[in-house]
UniProtKB/TrEMBL annotation:
It is found in: Mitochondrion outer membrane. WD repeats lie at residues 328-370, 371-410, 459-498, 551-573, 574-613, 654-685. Pfam families: WD40 (PF00400). Belongs to the WD repeat MDV1/CAF4 family. Its main location: mitochondrion. One of its GO terms (cellular component) is mitochondrial outer membrane. This is Trp-Asp repeat-containing protein. Residues 208-270 form a coiled coil. Residues 11-20 have a biased composition (Polar residues). InterPro entries: WD40/YVTN_repeat-like_dom_sf (IPR015943), WD40_PAC1 (IPR020472), WD40_repeat_CS (IPR019775), WD40_repeat_dom_sf (IPR036322), WD40_rpt (IPR001680). The keyword rRNA-binding does not apply.
């Protein structure tokens, strides 16, 4: 391996081969306090380096970087490349950068010459310089001229112009073809016998010396082409790297744009939340101080419509996002339903084969008490402030006041344990009457008193398990496995209307045909032969929600129905799911549905069409969405988040469940999930 050479060595080797350069002539015109031969030797050796494309690009990169010029700053070859000397006869004076190069002569002479990279490692700088100058094509022009043969004028130029449909100079002036004698093709009129013409190459003899010279020139031209090709490839690679870097910059800018869009949507939600809070505080301030308000049953506005940021402890901002920071362990079976009043508020959770939902204080993570009264597991529930409604396998709906739930040390005693089977008693006629826990009687059901515990009201009417419910103000809608929907008045506890889903299936609305019926479910519906087809098929109504007089339900036939609560008629049916619908939510413009067919669908309320379909690997059991994201339980050990702005997906797994998530609920940046591992996890979003 050759030892490294310095600029002094290079200069001593090349100075003997080159004559006085132009730079020496120019420098002779100026007087400097340094040796002219030193700077001449440096610049003449580095001249090919400064003219290569690689050095020019390196100079552009160096110029784009900020630099600080201090006293006696050290210079290297890169500094010399980006601050070349410029001397002339004009009015321009020498700058400080020019003087730095002159003052650093000795340092530059002792500096090591950097090893070449890329194309320069195969081709010398001088060779590359010679291959790129215009004089490299002179050999080809000379050889072409040597092959020219003197022949009579053929008028080829005129023939070429005529073939292209262009006018010659004579036609432009005279508007008719007048050719000179030199440009005319003379056709002999004699009819003498023609002899074969000799080849043009026979009249030209180049000689051995000329042919050898042409061989060497051709080989040199081929080498020049190789050098040029290498240089062009190097430039193409550099452009490719720049394009890739620009693509990265573009992607980063697009991500910034998406984040700005998300921030815009977040500000819209925050604005709506501030307006709602303003209306709430104005309503409170408008109440008379002496007015009597019934505080036993307070029915607040639904938190499903609440927008904007929630009230959170100051320490919540210190939590890392996407991490489960709290685990609630008390259940022994998979979670079937959960809901909470507000972040760090009150949580109610229910599980399979457990008739007593747990009540938790999310601020401390401790269990407050249990809701006793149902026979069988609780399938659905909703919490608003201190009010909770639960629907169970016994077909009943119970209204609870969570402020009256207290820790009871005698839960495990036989006196307070809910019996596994309903109690039976005989009436005056000798008939057995079911009397579970002393709540259901043969006669009229009396209204529960406050002394009876936290259960404030019992709603009876469904013949099978209640699987979905939604309440707002004094209106409640429930869906059950008996394939009916019921509307209730919570102030009186009476069923106002019953909507039969089977009747709606057999009598489809006229608008349903506009959206197609690809599965022919509207005309002839039949349940699967075996319940094993879908594990949750018994929960025929997967979700209900209303807004004003508009009610939306998702059922086991895979259809989304929109009902008019004033008439009890289904006026629109949205078909698309191939499995039972397990959950849904809707706002002013969209409906989000999840199904056992392993899809989530986002519908447009105005057109009834599907905006987006998201496919997952497992059935969807729970979802919630806002303007920015969709959070779903889709068979993962954490919540799956679909970003509606960037169309990206992510799963929360850090310190998550050990089995798939079944239920979830979130407010602002606070998420609660319940899984098949019988635990409840609290997440920070």
């Amino acid at each position: 391996m050759a030892s490294k050479r310095t600029a002094k060595d290079i200069g001593s080797s090349t100075r003997t081969q080159q004559g006085p350069s132009k730079l020496e002539v120019v420098q002779n015109m100026f007087s400097f306090n340094h040796k002219k031969t030193d700077s001449t030797r440096i610049l003449s050796d580095l001249a090919p380096t400064l003219m290569t494309p690689r050095s020019m690009n390196s100079m552009a990169d160096q110029l784009s970087r900020p630099r600080t010029i201090g006293p006696r700053s050290s210079l290297d070859f890169a500094t010399l490349g980006r601050a070349p000397l410029r001397f002339g006869l004009g009015s321009r004076r020498a700058t400080s950068g020019d003087l730095q190069v002159l003052e650093a002569t000795e340092e530059l002479l002792e500096a090591e010459v950097p090893e070449p990279e890329g194309v320069a490692s195969d081709v010398s700088l001088l060779r590359g310089f010679k291959a790129t100058i215009p004089s490299s094509d002179q050999g080809r022009a000379r050889r072409r001229q040597m092959r020219n043969v003197e022949t009579p004028k053929l008028g080829l130029k005129k023939l070429g112009l005529t073939a292209r449909g262009m006018l010659t100079e004579e036609e432009e002036h005279d508007n008719h073809s007048v050719g000179s004698e030199e440009d005319m093709v003379v056709i002999s009129s004699n009819h003498k016998k023609k002899r074969g013409r000799e080849s043009l190459s026979t009249a030209k003899r180049l000689g051995k010396e000329e042919l050898s010279r042409q061989v060497s020139e051709i080989l040199r031209d081929k080498e020049n082409l190789h050098v040029r090709r290498s240089l062009v490839r190097g430039e193409i690679d550099e452009i490719t790297h720049k394009i890739r870097a620009l693509d990265d910059v573009r992607q980063n800018l697009e991500q910034d744009l998406l984040r700005l869009q998300e921030d815009d949507l977040e500000l819209d939600d925050e604005l709506e939340g501030v307006k709602e809070r303003m209306r709430f505080e104005e309503a409170i301030s408008s109440q008379q101080p002496g007015s009597s308000v019934d505080k036993s049953i307070h029915l607040p506005a639904s938190s499903r419509r609440r927008k904007g940021p929630a009230f959170l402890p100051s320490e919540h901002s210190e939590l890392p996002p996407g991490v489960a920071f709290m685990t609630l362990e008390s259940h022994t079976t998979p979670i079937t339903a959960l809901d909470f009043s507000e972040p760090y508020g009150t949580l109610v959770s229910a599980s399979e084969e457990d008739a007593q939902p747990r009540v938790w204080d999310l601020l401390t993570g401790t269990e407050v008490g249990r809701l006793r009264g149902h026979i069988g597991a609780v399938k659905c529930l909703q919490v608003e402030d201190s009010v909770c409604l639960t629907g169970g396998e016994d077909g009943n709906v119970r209204l609870w006041d969570l402020r009256k739930v207290e820790d009871d040390e005698e839960w495990g005693t036989a006196r307070d344990r809910v019996p596994a089977i309903p109690e039976e008693d005989e009436n005056d006629d000798g008939e057995l009457v079911e009397k579970p826990n002393g709540i259901r009687y043969g006669g009229n059901t009396p209204e529960l008193k406050e002394t009876d515990g936290p259960c404030m009201r019992l709603l009876e009417g469904h013949s099978r398990a209640v699987t979905a419910l939604y309440f707002e103000d004094e209106c409640l809608v429930t869906g059950a496995a008996d394939k009916t929907l019921r509307q209730w008045d919570l102030t009186t506890g009476q069923c106002v209307m019953t909507m039969d889903i089977l009747w709606a299936i057999s009598h489809p609305a006229s608008s349903s045909a506009a959206y197609g019926d690809p599965y022919n479910m509207s005309s002839s519906f039949a349940a699967p032969a075996s319940s094993s087809t879908y594990d949750m098929y018994d929960d025929f109504v997967g979700g209900v929600q209303f807004w004003g007089y508009g009610l939306v339900s998702g059922s086991g036939d895979g259809a989304v129905r929109m009902w008019d609560m004033r008439t009890g008629q289904a006026h629109r049916t949205l078909l698309g799911h191939t499995g039972p619908i397990t959950c849904l939510q809707f706002d002013e413009m969209h409906i989000a549905t999840g199904s056992l067919d392993k899809t989530l669908r986002l519908w447009d309320l105005r057109t009834g069409g599907v905006i987006e379909t998201m496919h997952v690997d497992h059935p969807v059991t729970s979802l919630q969405f806002d303007t920015r994201k969709i959070v779903a339980a889709a068979g993962d050990n954490g919540a799956k988040i679909f970003n509606r702005t960037s169309s990206q997906q992510s799963v929360l797994l850090t310190n998550g469940h050990t089995k798939p998530v079944e239920r979830l609920r979130y407010m602002d940046k606070y998420l609660v999930t319940g899984g098949r591992d019988a635990t409840v996890k609290i997440w920070s979003l």
